[in-house]
Design goal:
Elements (H helix, E strand, L loop, with lengths): L9 H16 L14 H8 L10 H12 L3 H7 L1 E9 L2 E7 L2 H26 L20
Antiparallel strand pairs: 1-2
């Protein structure tokens, strides 16, 4: 709130400094800036290859949901179900608009697939490669110990 009013916010500055320390502590991220942000469209386009099982790409899902949320008439007509409740009156009419079961199921299924892909990536990132040194392997027992 303070930053939007043009006032300094020490808590925000502390958080930024701590995030920069964490970035610099990782060799692959050292020197990266917190101020360089990619657009939502470029991020969603980039993650499309990570979730190939989606019925439509993440960017398309986001555009559909955003269009509905922001009252985009074209998107509402394309995605939502409409029921005419009043006959046209001098060129205009009234509709009940609702999401269909199919639309809700598509978004729900996409969300589950994306969360599953995220968890798989998280597991892969935190799993040591099988050829790393120091890997624990079962030790063969000697015949005398059996």
């Amino acid at each position: 709130m303070k930053t939007e009013l043009g006032q300094p916010d020490p808590g925000f500055d502390r958080m930024g400094a701590r995030l920069q320390q964490q970035i610099d502590a990782r060799p692959a991220l050292a020197g990266q800036s917190l101020n360089k942000l990619d657009s939502v469209t470029s991020r969603l386009g980039a993650v499309a290859t990570m979730v190939p099982r989606l019925p439509v790409p993440p960017l398309t899902l986001w555009r559909m949901a955003s269009g509905i949320a922001h009252g985009n008439t074209h998107m509402i007509i394309a995605v939502l179900e409409r029921e005419q409740i009043k006959l046209p009156d001098e060129g205009s009419t009234d509709y009940n608009v609702t999401s269909s079961f199919v639309t809700v199921a598509m978004f729900y299924d996409a969300a589950l697939n994306m969360v599953e892909a995220l968890l798989d990536l998280y597991d892969a990132r935190n799993r040591a490669p099988p050829t790393c040194q120091g890997e624990l392997r079962p030790v063969a027992q000697s015949k005398s110990a059996v």
